[in-house]
Design goal:
Length: 393
């Protein structure tokens, strides 16, 4: 298949993915009038049909379309041809019929057209891409020391009482206006309280299914950060008690979901806080390793060019250096596009992913062939550095 044909297949599959994402958003919006929901679903079905060059889904009816949204998307998307099938096994709804937490990130990473967002989604979601770009510009304007301070604060203070946040962010507070009131986020509130994730300190999502109430971190649920509401009540004016149901469910205490409790916006959390936590974890796993030096956010040649510089200095051997950029994206396709849009670096660059994305490494390395860029998981990089540090003459 020619390159232009491959590109055409990718575009049509992403158009179909967009249509499916918007359809799921409409299908699960309890506040949407039935007439408008039906019109939106028809629009999405029309886009889906247009994305197919063959007649495979021309006869697909609304009932089959809605049923297909609950299963792997392979049955709805155009055939992948010679293009790697990155979305065929994707499910947009979980087993309970609820929207997966990553849906919003998927749509933003694949640049759902603003016209579609404006028509089908809330204004908060339309702002997401703009917010991410604004964060990037604000960070680039900071002096190297301010940049390092801001990155550390992203991990340490992404949410909390206003007074605490202002004190910790100090002179950066007026320049870093990405905080929003938790009181405006109904999705994280349980009887007027919110709960910070023990891993990332950002508000956890509250999901009610029948008589069950689950409180979970969208980013760290797979690592065991999820809870259920206890039958034991805390009393008047006391936050409901949560019982940990995962291996990483440390005790958490609810905070008032009031206007003076703030949290970083979702795009800043997704593309600022989570990568920073990944960088800190990498640093900590190499701490104390003989012959290994780790410099966080080195600031050269630009503060945002890469996140860590790791140097192995074994006596009698040439030094070895890793320049590392941590990424935590929901979509490997969108990440590949973003990396390909960058100016090629003069040095070897290592892109580090969370361990749970190990299955995406080979695909990304293939897409980045010809660039001085290597993709690997956090654990693989730690092993590589430690192995180099143990080598002797």
């Amino acid at each position: 298949m020619a390159l232009t044909e491959c590109d055409d297949v990718r575009v049509r599959r992403e158009q179909a993915l967009t249509a499916c994402c918007l359809a799921v958003a409409a299908e699960t919006d309890a506040g949407l009038e039935s007439v408008r929901r039906a019109a939106m679903l028809m629009d999405c079905l029309g886009v889906l049909r247009a994305a197919h060059l063959s007649g495979r889904v021309v006869q697909l009816g609304m009932r089959e379309f809605r049923r297909g949204l609950h299963g792997p998307l392979a049955q709805l998307l155009p055939p992948p041809g010679d293009v790697d099938d990155r979305f065929g096994g994707l499910r947009l709804l979980d087993d309970a019929g609820l929207v997966r937490d990553a849906l919003e990130d998927l749509c933003r990473e694949h640049l759902v057209p603003q016209a579609a967002l404006d028509r089908h989604w809330s204004w908060a979601r339309v702002r997401a891409e703009q917010e991410e770009r604004r964060l990037y510009e604000v960070m680039r304007r900071l002096e190297p020391e301010e940049y390092r301070q801001a990155r550390a604060l992203l991990a340490e203070c992404p949410a909390g009482p206003l007074r605490t946040l202002r004190k910790r962010w100090d002179r950066l507070w007026m320049r870093f206006d990405f905080f929003e009131a938790v009181s405006d986020w109904p999705w994280c509130q349980l009887e007027g309280w919110w709960y910070p994730c023990p891993k990332c300190r950002w508000p956890m999502r509250v999901v009610e299914t029948g008589q069950e109430v689950e409180v979970r971190c969208e980013a760290h649920r797979a690592r065991g950060v999820h809870y259920r509401l206890s039958l034991e009540r805390g009393g008047h004016g006391v936050a409901p008690i949560l019982l940990g149901t995962g291996r990483a469910s440390e005790p958490v205490v609810g905070l008032p979901a009031s206007v003076d409790h703030l949290a970083l916006s979702r795009p800043v959390w997704r593309y600022g806080v989570l990568p920073t936590l990944l960088e800190i974890e990498l640093r900590d796993r190499l701490k104390g390793q003989a012959h290994v030096q780790v410099e966080m956010w080195p600031g050269e040649p630009r503060p945002d060019e890469y996140d860590l510089r790791i140097t192995v200095a074994v006596p009698g051997r040439p030094n070895r250096t890793w320049r590392v950029d941590a990424k935590d994206w929901a979509s490997a396709d969108a990440l590949a596009k973003a990396l390909l849009e960058r100016e090629p670096t003069r040095y070897a660059l290592y892109i580090v992913l969370p361990d749970h994305q190990a299955h995406e490494v080979a695909y990304l390395n293939t897409r980045l062939t010809g660039r001085r860029t290597k993709v690997l998981t956090l654990t693989r990089l730690v092993e590589q550095v430690k192995r180099a540090a143990r080598e002797t003459r």
